[in-house]
Amino acid sequence: MTRSYLPGVFAMAAVVVASNILVQFLFGQWLTWGAFTYPIAFLVTDITNRVYGTGPARKVVFAGFIVGVICSLIGTQIVGEFGPLVTLRIAIGSGLAFLTAQLLDVSIFAALRNGAWWRAPLASTLIGASVDTALFFSIAFSATLTWIEPGNDVSWAGEMLPILGSGPVAPLWVSLAVADWGVKIGLALLALVPFRLIVGRLLRKEATAG
Q1: What is the pTM (predicted TM-score) of this model?
Q2: pLDDT tens digits, residue range 74-93?
Q3: How far, rounded to the nearest angstrom, does the alpha carbon of residue 209 sit from its chain's CA centroid?
Q4: Cβ–Cβ under 8 Å, residues 118 and 188
Q5: Residue 67: which of 38, 27, 104, 89 has the closest Cα?
Q6: Are 47 and 206 in contact (CB under 8 A)?
Q7: E strands of the chain, at which residues?
Q8: Which of 37, 49, 123, 168 has the smallest set of CB atoms within 10 Å of its CB?
Q9: Is residue 42 a contact partner of residue 191, using CB atoms and an 8 Å limit?
Q10: Using only C-alpha atoms, what is the Rg of the chain?
Q11: Cα(24)–Cα(33) distance, integer angstroms
C-alpha cells in the first residue's frame, strides 16, 4: 500500500513545479497560466485521501511543500527584469498558503468522507482554495505586511482600481486574488469528473491487488 500512493507524490511534485514555471507567464490582464495548473494540487490531494486515507494524503502534501520550497529557493537566485523571480514575501506567502490550505483540505475531506461522494472533494477544495488565495495574495502583496520585506517595493500591487475592471475600487492585488479564486472555484467543479473516474479506477485496482 505504501508504494501505491507514490504516483500521487510525483503528481503533486509535477503540479508544483509546473505552476512555479507557468506563473511567470501572463494570461490576460488578471491571471497567469499557473492559475490553471495549481488547483490540480487539490485534486491530487483529494484522490489520495479518498483511496489511501489521510496519512498518505498528508505525506503527498508535505512532498509538494518541500518541492515548492526548493522551487522558491531556485527562483530567488534567478533575476528577471524587475528583480528576483521569487521574493521573500512571495516565498513565504506561497509556502504558508499551500501548506495551510492543503492540510485544511485533508481535514475537511476526512470529516465529510462518509457523505455523498461529491461532498468531501467539493467542500474541501472550495474552502481550501479560498484560504489559499486569501493567504497568498495578502501575504505577498498587501501594503499592511510590507514589514515582512521592507526592501521589496510592491506599491504597484496597491494601485487603486475597479475590481476586475468594473467592480468597486480596491488595490490591484485584490483583483488578482479574485480572478485567481474564480479559476480555482471553477476548476473545483470541473475536477469532480476526473475525481470520480480516477478514484473508481484506483479503488478497483486496489481491490484486485488485495
Answers
A1: 0.94
A2: 988 887 666 677 899 999 99
A3: 32
A4: no
A5: 38
A6: no
A7: 26-27, 31-32, 79-80, 83-84, 160-162, 169-171
A8: 168
A9: yes
A10: 18
A11: 8
**What's at 47, amino acid-wise?**
I
Q: Which three cell numbers stand for residue 48?
A: 489520495
Place of cell 505525506: 59
Measure the CA–CA gap between 169 and 146, rounded to whole angstroms.
Answer: 21
What are 88's three cell numbers?
521573500
Inter-residue contact 77 to 111 (CB < 8 Å): no
Max CA distance (Å), the chain: 59
The model's pLDDT over 102-145, given as tens digits with 9 standing for 90+, comes to 999 999 999 999 999 999 999 999 999 999 999 999 999 999 99
pLDDT above 90 covers a percentage of the chain that reads 84
